[in-house]
Amino acid sequence: MRGEIPSALIVRDMLCEFVRRIITERKLTEKDVKKIVGFATLPEIRKIMDGDWEKINSDVALHFLAFLGWRVEVYIRPRDKEKEDLQFVTAGGLLGPEREEDLK
Prior knowledge:
The protein is mainly alpha-helical. The chain contains 4 helices and no strands.
């Protein structure tokens, strides 16, 4: 996408991957997702499920997560200059045993 910086693309891809994994783990069909999310179009759902995230923006992925029952928290703080340039904290155990009950 024009004007996006690589770190924004990484965040978008991570969010889309979380959405895809949640839908897959719940064994939801495209029609199920359309009912749950409401505003989603079938092409958007297919793009997320196929990993074709180039035309999906982070806001869409965040809305999917919210409608799928997930709370997304964003923490912003100065980075530690002695560490890597980019640091991401991902959802701990997103689909691990401690969150498995959230997917049913």
